[in-house]
What we know:
Layout: H1 2-16, H2 19-28, E1 29-34, E2 41-42, E3 48-60, H3 70-77, H4 81-94, E4 100-106, H5 108-117, E5 124-133, H6 140-143, E6 146-148, H7 151-156, E7 165-167, H8 170-174, H9 176-180, E8 184-190, E9 196-199, E10 215-217, H10 221-230, E11 236-242, E12 247-254, H11 267-276, H12 285-288, H13 298-308, E13 322-323, E14 329-330, H14 340-346, H15 349-360, H16 368-380, H17 403-410, H18 434-445, E15 449-450, E16 456-459, E17 462-463, H19 467-470, E18 473-474, H20 482-494, E19 512-518, E20 526-533, E21 540-546, H21 556-569, H22 575-583
Parallel strand pairs: 2-10
Antiparallel strand pairs: 1-8, 2-3, 3-4, 3-5, 6-7, 8-9, 10-16, 11-12, 11-21, 13-14, 15-18, 16-17, 19-20, 20-21
Helix pairs in contact: 10-21, 13-15, 14-20
Amino acid sequence: MVFLVVVIRLFHIQVIDRSYRMSASNNVLRYITQYPARGLIYDRNGEILVHNQAAYDLMVVPMQVSPFDTTEFCSIIGISKQQLKNSLREARRHSSFRPSPLVKQLSAQNYAVLQEKLFKYPGFYVQPRTLRAYPRDVAAHLLGYVGEVDDRIINNNSYYSMGDYIGISGLERAYEDELRGKKGVSVYLVDVHNRIKGSYGEGRYDTVAVLGSNIRTTIDVNLQEYGEQLMQNKIGGIVAIEPSTGEVLSMISSPTYDPDLLVGRPRTTNFRILERDTIKPLFNRALMAMYPPGSTFKIVNALIGLQEGTVSPRTKYTCDGGYHIGKGVGCRHHISPTDLIQSIQVSCNTYYCHVFRNIIDKPSLGGVEQGFTVWKNHVESFGFGKKLNIDQPNELAGIVPSVSFYDRYFRKGGWNSLTILSLAIGQGELGTTPLQMANMTAAIANKGFYYTPHLVKGIGGESLKEPRFSIPNYTTIDSVWYSYVIEGMDMAVNGGPGSTARAAAISGITVCGKTGTSQNPHGKDHSVFVAFAPKENPQIAIAVYVENAGFGSTWAAPIASLIIEKYLTGEVKRTWLEQRMLNAVLLDRREEE
C-alpha cells in the first residue's frame, strides 16, 4: 500500500501536476517574447506621423528570486522599496513560475546600468520592446494611443498576455490587427546566476516576430497642423473630406494634446491630468460632439422640398422679420421677398418655415406622421441619425427624432408641423457631428452621393481594399435639384450685400458655403460653417464648429476659408485674416449680457 501511494504521488507530480515541470524548466530555460515593432503611420504624402523607439521592461519570475540588495536594486531602476514590494506581490499573484513585468519602460540609461549588474539578481531579466514616438505634435485624436492590456482583454483574446500593449483609441485601435504584427519567442539556457548561456536547441524552438504593417493615411499632415493652429484657444471640431473619394484630409478636435504625453511611464499620470481638465482635451469633438446644425441645415430642407415638389426654384416668400404663426421664428433683416436661391444666400428663416411645413403637411402624404416620416427618410439618406462607419472607434450616430419620440413627448396626436417648427432651421431635437456635416457637404458637392469617410489609403504597401469605402451611398434627392442649392451656396459666399458668408470668399477660387449659428442652451451660441471648393470639380468639403463663438460668418467661415486656401493653393495670402484667427481666444462659455 505504501508503494502504491508513492507510485500514485510520483505519477501526479510528473504527469498531472505541471507546475514542478514548469518550475524546473524555468530554472534552466528563459522564454523571451520577441515583440514586433508596430507598423509605422504615414500621411497621404508619405510624411511619417508615428514611428517607434526602443524601450525595456524589467521582468521577474518570482519563484527564481533569491534574497538580494533591495537598496541598490531600487536605486538602479528608480523606484521605492514599497513600489518594489507591491510589484513583487502582484507578480506572485499572477504566477510564481511565469514571468511578469516588474517595471515597464525603463530608460536607456537605467537599462545600461542594470544590464551590468543583472547577474546579482536571480529571477530578473530585461525584455526589449518598442514604444510609439511622434515627430510632430499633431493629430493626437485620430492617431490614438497605445496602452497595456487588462484582464478583460486577455480573457477575450488569447493573443494577448500580461504586459502586452494594444491600441486604445484612434487608428491605433481601429487597425490594431494590422499594426501589431505577430509576436515571436526566443528560448535561452541560463546558468545558476541567471545569465544567458546560449540559445536552447540551437534555436530550433524559436519563432520569429513578424513586423506590423505600415499604414498610409488619407491625412494631409500640413493641413492638419494648420487647422490645429487655427483652433488654438478655441473649442470645437473641423472635418475636411475629399468629395470624390471620401478620404478625410483633416480631422481636428480642439482642444487637443501632445501625443507624447501618453507614451511611456508618465502615461498614467498624464492621462489623469488630461481627464480632469475641464475643457476635455481627450474628447474627440469631430466624432463625438453632437451639435444642432443650425442654418446650415436649410440646404437639406431646400433639397427635400424640391424633391417633394412643395417648393420650386422660383417660389418666393415674403419675410418681415420672422415667421409669425404659432410661437414664431425670428429672422434677420434682408431683401424680401426671396426665391429659393436667394433664401440660401441671405439665410432666411421665414422661407424655411414655409418649406418645412409644406413638406410635413403635404396633403398627398396623408397626415403629419406620414409627412414627417418622409422628411426623416430624406434626412437620414445624407448620413444623419446613424453612424457613417468611419474607420475610427467611438463615432456617435447623432440624432434625428422619430414619430415615436414626438408621440411620447407630446402624446400621440398632440403635435404638428408648428410644434416641431425649429427643425426647419436646424434646431430642436436634431443632433449632428462635424463629421456628419462634412459628409453632407461632400454629398452636395457630388450632387447626390457620398463615399463613406475613411482615414486610411493603404496598408503594407497595398491600396486599401475595403468595399464599404469604395461603394457610393446615394441620397434620396434627384441630382437635378442640387444645382439650385449649389447656386445659393455660391451666392452666400460670392454674392452682393446681404450674403451671409462673404468672409469665406477667396480670390480666384469659387467657394460654395453656408453659415449657421447653432443655438446653445448652456452658453453662447456655436459658430458653424460648411463649404466645398472649387464649385466645379470640388476637391475639398469642410465643416467647422467653433463652440460659444456666435455667428458662423464671424469665426467658422474665415477658418474654413483659410483651410480651403491652404489646401488648394499651398499658401495663405490673406495674412491679416490668418493672424486674426490665430490670435483669437474664444474660450468664454458664458451667456452674453
